[in-house]
Amino acid sequence: MSAANGTATKTVETGTLSIGYLEHGAPDGWPVVLSHGFPYDVHAFDEVGRILAQAGARVIVPYTRGFGPTRCLSDETPRSGQQAARGLDIVELIDVLGIKRPILGGFDWGGNASCVAAALWPGQIGGLVSYAGYDIIDVNGQRLPVAPALEKVFWYQHLFQTERGRECLSQHRRDLCRILWSEWSPGWQFDDATFARSANAFENPDFVDVVISCYRHSFGLEAGEMAMQEFEARLAQKPAIAVPAVTIDGTNDPLKPGGTSHHAKMFVGFHEHRVVDAGHNVPQEQPEEFARAVLRVHEQIN
């Protein structure tokens, strides 16, 4: 299987998943793992990966669970989208690949999972680039309403709490996800081919179950896996992130009105916060800026 940019998709097995991923750069380069969000895929990092590879990095870009070729190894494995499971997926991936203390970078679900991994397993992580801010989900806080204007932006999350929403995502996944791309990045003029290349990843048979699980768990309406309860309990305590970190906001992201500069107190090591002219999908809209943030973290740990 080959990606549209000519990079061959590789696979590796962890304890629970067969994870598909792209790799950029030399095998002996300094390690970076970049994680995408919903509803995107690995191609959000094509240009970021190229820039970092030219700077000497070995860049691993995995398909998150429920996307592309990433599959559960057992039919008995819960198709969970909760944050602890996705954070652990990153840690298990770097362990099986033998990668030592990589810089993690991500946005949306990928930023959330990268923050989870950095907070819970800091000894295995070298640094962090997170869009947006301290992106660990406060499940208890999610039970409370936000301003009506923001609740309107979250329409898809409310839809996914119902079985009608599950069927809508199942039957109209491409149309629904394209609406989200446009709403979340209002200044980004992507073409049909760009969307279609990523939308292929939504045909994973676990896609709907994982997406629905993610948003129901984050609203506190789905219990999640028993094996993840200890991790979720630790995340509920809002652990600080100690690894060197750069956080990014996009000026035109309706999901993050006002930005996340107030999250600075959650970073107790080196931390810089940057604001870029972009919507939600910063790696694809402003790849040079995302790559610069990774390079800044690399400077701090070397």
Structure characterization notes:
With 302 residues, the chain is an alpha/beta fold. The protein has a single domain (10-300), classed as 3-Layer(aba) Sandwich (Rossmann fold). 39% of the residues lie in helices and 16% in strands. Strand 1 (10-13) and strand 2 form a beta hairpin. Helix 2 crosses helix 3. The chain is globular, with a radius of gyration of 18 Å.
Break the fold down into its secondary structure elements and pairings.
Blueprint: E1 10-13, E2 17-24, E3 30-35, H1 46-54, E4 57-62, E5 71-72, H2 83-97, E6 103-107, H3 109-120, E7 127-131, H4 139-142, H5 148-153, H6 155-159, H7 163-171, H8 173-184, H9 192-199, H10 207-218, H11 229-236, E8 245-250, E9 271-276, H12 282-285, H13 287-300
Parallel strand pairs: 3-4, 3-6, 6-7, 7-8, 8-9
Antiparallel strand pairs: 1-2, 2-4, 2-5
Key terms for this structure?
hydrolase activity, hydrolase, Rossmann fold, alpha/beta, AB_hydrolase_1, 16% strand, globular, nine-stranded mixed sheet, 302 residues, Alpha/beta hydrolase, AB_hydrolase_sf
